[in-house]
Amino acid sequence: MDSFNSPTTKPLYRGTQIVWYILGVLEVLLAFRFVLKLLGANPGAGFTNFIYKVTYIFASPFLSVFKVSQVEGSIFEWTTLLAMLVYWLIAYGIIKLFLMGKTVSTPEAAVKLENQEK
Question: Which superkingdom does the taxonomy of this entry point to (predicted)?
Fold first, then answer.
């Protein structure tokens, strides 16, 4: 059975699409947080306050990893960049796990195993 006609191909594809989509939304929100902090945005403004509240849960595990770099109201939040990297790595790992469930032919598996031995 080739992998194009496998019954697992479409669900795996949809699963990877969902993971990349969720990561994309999260990365955009964290990027907004980073830029707003960097530009010294007013935290009392509706949009800024919304972004800070939504992203806090995702940024909070990293908030004490690095010292904050601050110059006259502008904050370079290294921790947000770290969060973006960590979440990207997690998504990449999940995608790799999904792809391990992909159907492969015996000859294809043999070639891949042989390449791993090198």
Answer: Bacteria
